[in-house]
Amino acid sequence: MSSPLRLLALTPLLVLAGCSNVLNPFCGSSRPAPLIGSLSPSTVTYAQVQQGVQLTVNGSHFVSASEVVINGKALGPTVVSNQQLQIMLTTGVISGPGQFNGKVLAPGGNGGDVGCSSGGTSSTLMLSVQ
What we know:
Layout: H1 4-10, E1 35-40, E2 43-44, H2 46-51, E3 53-60, E4 67-70, E5 73-75, E6 78-81, E7 84-89, E8 98-106, E9 120-121, E10 125-129
């Protein structure tokens, strides 16, 4: 009679592409997509932008390589924590009053070919410049 340990060693492991990271034991170093909860402040004046105003992005799953994307322009933030990023809004980013999209992009971790999703883009919040 074979021991249970020996049978386990001979059982093939099946990994399905696109399966959930929770179900895949090889997804340990992959990271979830960032979640964005708020921008602070969410409304600024263009005069503040001309002087340079700090924008804080609050959320979760931020990593050191995360980028804040304002209206399509990727910016390297100061990472305060895995829940907070900060950038400086200037006229190089904002060219005038209006509504601007803000989101966070996190690069993928070690997802590889084992069916792990990793990193990604958060939802979008609006920044109002008056």
